[in-house]
Amino acid sequence: MNVLVARKLGFCFGVREAIKLAEHTAAERRAQGRAVHSLGPVIHNRQVVARLTEQGLQTIESLAEASAGGTVVIRSHGVSPEVVEEAARRGLEIVDATCVLVKRAQEIVRQLHREGYRVVIIGDPQHPEVQGVLGYAPGVIVIDSAEEVDRLPEGGRLGILSQTTHSAEHFGRMVGLIAARGYPELKVVNTICNATTERQEAAVELCKQVGVMFVLGGHHSANTNRLAEICRETGVPTFHIEGLEEFRTEMVVDQTTAGVTAGASTPDWVIEQFVRHLEKL
Ligand code: SF4
User: Which of 2, 36, 76, 163 is most exposed by smallest CB count within 10 Å?
Assistant: First the structure.
């Protein structure tokens, strides 16, 4: 079978760096006989988290669960300054794997507040990245839909930024709706990361050249689900599977060329193993 792979797929650099740092920290602290934790799973991928656990990285949901004198790895989504302060109070060592683009968003919130703007984040208030970023200034408002625009104050100067993984179209629409309310001053900072958009564009491009598409990644991964949806919208038969174990030969019956893409939390080895298998068919 002829297999074409999307020109952008799988791990973004923020996730790749976070995993590398988590692995390195786990190996080093383990050798020193110290406990190593990650605050929340480093990545939303079961195989990777299981491998990190084997290497000694224990996932915890709150700092209260950390062993005394232990190390806590902050994942790429980042955390609020309160979490860092709490870790210091508990005597825990922090290893910060926050993605540089998330760090930039955190700094922008701080700066906008210093400049006297009321900060508005266009994002999902439940997303860990947003929960961390909003801790960088008091009174930050998070909205994500047209209906929520009414929650904004009537007047004043607003400083607006986006959750890094949101689409530029959505951010632009929301900024347009806010501008229509007639504020005297708006400062808009583009904090969108291109990794998601690049993967979606590359997948659509690939759909034009293949008879069947495979999207690899966790069924619970939002960005992988969205990738699969976008591929289906092109009309090409699309299968969203976690990896080789979910593949069945009926999926490629009568097909000569298959396309492969993967969500931002899918490890390289899952992609490579799958591509090698398809090529042998
Ligand atoms: S901001 Fe972009 S590069 Fe950084 S972790 Fe998020 S998706 Fe990855």
Answer: 2
